Amino acid sequence: MDLTTKYMGLSLKNPLMAAASPLTSTVKSIQRLEKAGIAAIVLPSLFEEQIRREQEEEERIALSRNDLFPEATSFLPSGLTLERGSQAYLDTIHKVKAAVDIPVIASLNGCSEGGWVDYARQIEQAGADGIELHIYYNPPSLDITGRQVEEVYLDVARRVKDSVTIPVALKVDPFFSAFGNMARQFDEIGVDALVMFNRMLQPDFNLNNMLVEPSWPISKAGEIGIPLRWISVLHGKVNASLAATSGAYDHEDIIKYLLGGADTVMLASALIRNGADYVSVLLKGLEVWLKQRDFEDLNEMRGMMSQRSVANPEAFERANYIRTVDGVRK
Amino acid sequence: MSQHNHSKEQPVRVTIDGNEAAAYVAYRTNEVCAIYPITPSSNMAELAEQWAAEGIKNIWGGKPHVAQMQSEAGAAGAVHGSLQTGALTTTFTASQGLMLMLPNMYKIAGELTPSVIYVAARSLATQGLSIFGDHQDVMAARSTGYAMLSASSVQEAHDLALIAQAATLESRIPFMHFFDGFRTSHEINKISLLPDGVIRAMIDDKLVHDHRRRALNPENPVIRGTAQNPDVYFQARESASSFYEKTPDIVEACMWRFAGLTGRHYRPFSWYGPKNAKRLIVLMGSGAETVKMTMEAMNRELPEDDQVAMIQVRLYRPFSADRFLHILPESITSIAVLDRTKEPGASGEPLYQDVMTVLSEGYMNDRIKRLPKVIGGRYGLSSKEFTPAMVKAVYDELSKEQPKNHFTIGINDDVMGSSLEYDDSFVIEDPESVRAMFFGLGADGTVGANKNSVKIIGSDPQLNAQAYFVYDSKKSGSQTISHLRFGKQPIEAPYLIQSASFVACHQFNFLERTDMLSNIEPGGIFLLNSPFGPDEVWSKLPRRVQEQLIQKKLKLHVIDGSAVAKAAGMGNRTNTIMQTCFFALSGVLPRDEAIARIKHAIEKTYRRKGADVVERNFRAVDQTLEHLYSVRIPAHIEHAEIIVEKPVVSEEAPEFIKEVTSRMIGGQGDLIPVSQIPVDGTWPSGTTRWEKRNIALQIPVWDEEVCIQCGNCSMVCPHAAIRAKFYNEASLADAPEGFKSAPISARGFPETRYTLQTYPEDCTGCGLCVEACPVRNPKKSGSRAINMMDKEPVLEEEKQSLSFFEQLPINDRRQVDFSTVRGIQFLEPLFEFSGACSGCGETPYLKLMTQLFGDRLLVANATGCSSIYGGNLPTTPWSKNAEGRGPAWANSLFEDNAEFGFGFRLSSDHQAEQAMLELESFREQLGSELVDSIIHAPQENDTDIHKQRERLKSVQEQLQDVHTPEAQSLRAVMDRLLKRVVWIVGGDGWAYDIGSGGLDHVLASGRNVNVLVMDTEVYSNTGGQASKSTPMGAVAKFAAAGKRSAKKDVALQAIAYGNVYVARIAMGASPQQALQAIREAEAWPGPSLVIAYSHCIAHGINMTHGMEQQRLAVRSGHWPLFRYNPGRTDHHENPFILDSLRPSVPLTDYIRNEVRYRALNIACPDEAGAILEEAQTVINRKWGVYEEMATHNAMDFVPEKASAVH
User: Which residue of A has its CA nearest to B41?
Assistant: First the structure.
């Protein structure tokens, strides 16, 4: 069975990718994924915000202990200034690239104007096959307008795209008034892939210490609806590759995404729950399904159920909602 | 050093300090360095170790072996051994360190072993310790047989290092190359770096081979170190004299050769001044530059026939009489010889004596026709300033008919009348230079920014730069004053700025307490970091400042550094902003060029940290320029409400505090006359309470509604700034408004109230208390029972509450439960408001000790952080209670503290026995019942103690009118019948390294001494050098590539004795266990060792989370808690109790919060992972050992009987 897939210009042996997760954070576990059949991996994000916070903390610590009193004007060997944590990340790219044959995509979660471009270049230099840009800009503000938010996304995407030659994917959230149009605008910038969708850390309240804590963003089975809809709508209408990322738990979810028009399906929660070897189970399931229906390769079935090709495209329309509700009532 | 590598042999100009200048040559011309930290020489050793870790080579292409030793005595031994076996070997030291090297120095010299010791000369500990510069240490070593070469500047520290290395090889006499501690060792100046070719050309390999040939060698064995008898020892001592005879010639020849290579000329004695001069000063060290400059200035004014001159001594030993007489012109009629040392009881100080001897001999031998008048004087002890005004006073004295001999200059000696008066207004600063003074706070980055500025400006080929930094005596909230000079001429002014052209105040609140405009020149620039803008700032200035601004016609500029920093995304870091202002205003460089330079420097510094960081700093620079305002100064003081400075200490302070201490606090200590200083180093205790430092911006505020009164907050407070009392509700009748009180949370005390009080002006704002609070307010998110709040709005109310709180009676110790954290909060701390770092991890233990036993406590304190925050003047934290009782504290040395405290025990025990003897003689008079009850009194708890006090009081009363010699004798020792508690305290540098032998011996003694090791796992006081306590994987100085061996387990060593009580505690992990251990240690009648985890700024942690780090240290198994109590074997119980649980988090969870470990990845990226894995393995195995011990039975431990204690 030919499962080969093109994803933002990269040739993959199948459409299953490992999304950024703890499983893609060490060379060992990435090797295990490769062995199980994964076609490409996305490294966990270089969190610019986190690095910056750590760096500020370090500067603050250095400041609070240097030149305090005459006997001890410092507390570490001189010249040993801590470099930005990005170095460790770049080293990881090197190591992973040397250890596996599958494409390695680095991901970048930035927040500042300079940071995006700067890191994207460094990631490219470190040898990554592509960059997956994670943008999540959803300020808890009553002043910022939708257009301003959109501009931030477009601006970042444009600047990163302009600064590197390796393909750039964009992992975004669906919280736009008109996601379809946003997707087109991203496409026009030249973004090589759209990854749908980002799972955000959402606040939760700790009732013991009365503080806000982030909740674990692991997805659940059956959560494929929103990405499936947009993938199906976008398929064939944008140049960018399409990757699905939420709620793919079994081979049927994967098949649905492919039918909607996804080029690849990214796995995280399913692998965390079931282990790296689960990739081979999914691949098997996919192959069996294809074989049963006599598909020779994925191109035959990919996008079969997209809005453009499906027999009942009106099902993607809002009007359908009323009927669904009516159906439930009856 | 790597940045100094250069392919061409062109001299490179670099801006470095004296230590680096000397170490640079030492490293390149040696093969082995044996090192040990001591201020102010530590940086030399640190650099050598670091360069070795970086793989930098010496001139023979090898990488020197650098080994840290356990003490300077150990370093000297290693140097001796290394030299004996043929390696070129060096060490770096100062002060007490040099004293510990003396025995080996005699050996090394006696064996004619070429080598150089580098000394940053420093005071010796006499009536007090001092880290600052003078020549007492090197003078104490002058009889060792070492040649002594004295450098007067950063350049000379560099150049003479090479001359010493060359001369020692040729002469075979070992050299001490010394320069003034701090003034030269820490002064940053621009120098010409010696190219490798020059170093190579100066060192003759043939002589190196000779050294190797003389080495011990089994191929050609000899014996050295024989024991010699009266028949030959004397002759043997004389046998090397000819070598000393030749040494001055060799040194001079080396100096000539050096001049030929570099163009810089030195002589054993250098003459400066006209050949027909009449008055002469002779001296050595950094003061020589001051004398030279002054001499030149004076000669410009003096008539041709009354000129002054100077001889600078560079080669002090061997003292070349010939040369001295040779350069002394006949015109000289009077000579002042200046010594930076004091030799009590001598006929004069060393250099004076040498000059006198040489002159008299010269006169006797007809080498000189007449004897000039010669006077000797002392100057500059412990870095006392030595200014041109003082030099002029000395020259002036020489004009007198009867000049004062054995004078002092720079102080007011109103006891012996030795001091010369001098006129401060005599100032000779180069008017073309920029002289800038910066007043900053220890942690605000001012010094760091200034070091950076000096490097930036020093890199300009046209400009010279000099920087020197003055710190106050506290480790937290200290004031720093940076003295920077810039100019086209080389800057040779080794004294603080006398007349500033630019003054910057980086902290607005300094204006009230510091007179920073007293020496700004008319028309100078004053830069003020001010929250008030140009239009409103004037009225906020103290009257004195307003007057100075008007009278001196100063130019005032303001910037709101904090606001700009915040806006530019720099947080609260104002250093770049203030630095930019200096560059923009000072005129050192044209403004545009200056700004371009600063941006260039920013780019260089931050490039690797990311473009956005660079951008952010650029933005800060640009915004600074936009928000830097010039202020219009009115012609007259026009504001009605004039801010007047507050008195330094309160009116209630004792006379001594008001007369003496307050002047030291106010920065006027230099003006205190000799008569007001204690003659024997005895100072009043408990003086920190008079110095309201007000350094916290936020203080903890108590929420009485939700507090559970557990006592955790006051226990962890490092500064004793949170205290609790319980009292009858009736006391509240007079309480001021806002005084907080809560019913005590204990059954059966309906009328008792509880108050937790903050000392708002003493708190340092560390926040440890809030972190320790177990309460989470269910009705307010993030709130606890004690919360940090901005101080200003609550200060007045808190101060009033505090005065009321202080009037409430101290709780009766007999009513307090000593066994719980909750109970001990009511015990008065007798260690308070120390100058330790904000959030210090050591001081809570000391405070706890004073709460438990303070009123009968003797403390022997090893030198280190604890002796500094414990005993550094002007104010000290060991205090006393209302009855006047409290810890009696002393610091002897670093290496001998266990023995010192052991002496306390011996003496106390003996005197107690003597007191019993004396008491016996009054048995009849006092009655057997009383005498026996005193002699056999149990003294286990405060009730017992109270009873014993009552008994002794009764004896006192009964003998009140008896004046027989026997009664006098009894009275002299009677108070010794109260059980005295001896605690020997210090850090890990002492306990694990330098004092290890003594500690071991004292623990083996069986005597009732208690040892508290406050283990920061590093030499904290000297700046973070590794000790044997430093854990595997931590990066420290002297372990620049990470510590590779595991931490020494002193606990297990002590347990091996069997009769030593041993505990390992960590207050942040278990305050209750810490309390229990300290009490058990005291109760155990034999020796006790308590090892206390002490988080430290040297760990590179957020100090607010210090206690959390302690918890993680325990949870990860890095710091298992246990107690080994030999007393338990009496009851057939296992003496070893493991108090913490099996490790529940990986080591990484603990160490990821600490820069010392995070730095490992940078120090050795390839090995870091393996080292940390190994460290985890060590922990796991160690835990296994402890766990196994915890399952032993009483008889499984060593056979020494637990009762084998005295």
Answer: A71
Range from A45-59, B608-622, B866-880 carrying the lowest mean pLDDT = A45-59
CATH number at residue B1141: 3.40.50.970
Amino acid sitting at position B526: F
Q: Mind telling me how many Å the CA of B282 is from chain A's nearest CA?
A: 30
pLDDT at B1: 44
Both B113 and B132 in one domain: the answer is yes
Contact check, Cβ <8 Å, B1161/A88: yes
Per residue in B336-389, pLDDT tens?
999 999 999 999 999 999 999 999 999 999 999 999 999 999 999 999 999 999
Residue B241 neighbours by CB under 8 Å, 6+ apart? none
| B950 and B1047 fall within a common domain | no
- Using the 3D structure, point to which of B211, B233, B262 is the last residue of a domain: B262
Q: Tell me what pLDDT residue A117 has.
A: 81
Structure tokens at B942: 């405060």
Q: Chain B partners of A80 at a C-beta cutoff of 8 Å? A: 1035, 1040, 1159, 1162-1163
Residues whose CB falls within 8 Å of the CB of residue B942, separated by 6 or more in sequence, listed in order: B813, B814, B816, B818
Distance (Å, whole) CA B427 – CA B423 = 9
The secondary structure element, H or E, covering residue B149 is strand B147-151
Residues of B in contact with A114 (CB under 8 A): 610-612, 614-615
Same domain (yes/no): B480, B520: yes
Asked if A52 is an interface residue toward chain B (Cβ–Cβ < 8 A), one would say yes
What residues of B are labeled active site? 39, 72, 122, 1021
pLDDT band at B451 (very low <50, low <70, confident <90, very high): very high
Torsion of CA B1056, B1057, B1058, B1062, to 10 degrees: -80
pTM (two decimals): 0.92
d(CA B1082, CA B845): 14
- A206: contact with B, CB 8 A cutoff: no
Residues of A in Cβ contact (< 8 Å) with B1035? 76-77, 80
ipTM: 0.86
DSSP B1068-1093: TT-HHHHHHHHHHHHHSSS-EEEEEE
Lowest mean pLDDT: which of A235-244, B9-18, B216-225, B270-279? B9-18
- Determine the pLDDT at residue B644: 63
Tell me whether residue B657 is in a domain. Answer: no
Closest-CA residue of B relative to A71 is B1022
Per-residue pLDDT of B8-47, as tens digits, reads 456 799 999 999 999 999 999 999 999 999 999 999 999 9
Assigned token pair, A166: 């390796």
Residues B24 and B90 in one domain: yes
Q: How far is A213 from chain B (nearest CA, A)?
A: 12
pLDDT of amino acid A320: 56
Q: Specify if B969 maps to a domain.
A: yes
pLDDT at B4 (0 to 100): 46
- pLDDT mean over B565-577: 86
> Average pLDDT of B315-323?
98
According to the model, what pLDDT value does residue A330 have? 47
Q: Clarify whether residues B472 and B345 are in a common domain.
A: no
Task: Please indicate, yes or no, whether residues B544 and B615 belong to a single structural domain of this protein.
Answer: yes
A113 contact B CB<8A: yes
B-chain CB neighbours of A60 within 8 Å are: 571, 573, 1102
Cβ of A78 within 8 Å of Cβ of B611? The answer is: no
Chain B residue numbers with beta carbons less than 8 Å from the beta carbon of A70 are 39-40, 131, 182, 186, 469, 471
Indicate the number of domains in chain B: 6
Which range of residues forms the domain containing residue B1119?
Answer: 1016-1196
Q: Which domains does chain A possess?
A: 5-304 (3.20.20.70)
Of B826, B844, B879, the residue at which a domain comes to its end is B826
Q: CA–CA separation, A308 vs B197, rounded Å?
A: 79
- Identify which of B246, B245, B295 has the alpha carbon closest to the alpha carbon of residue B270: B295
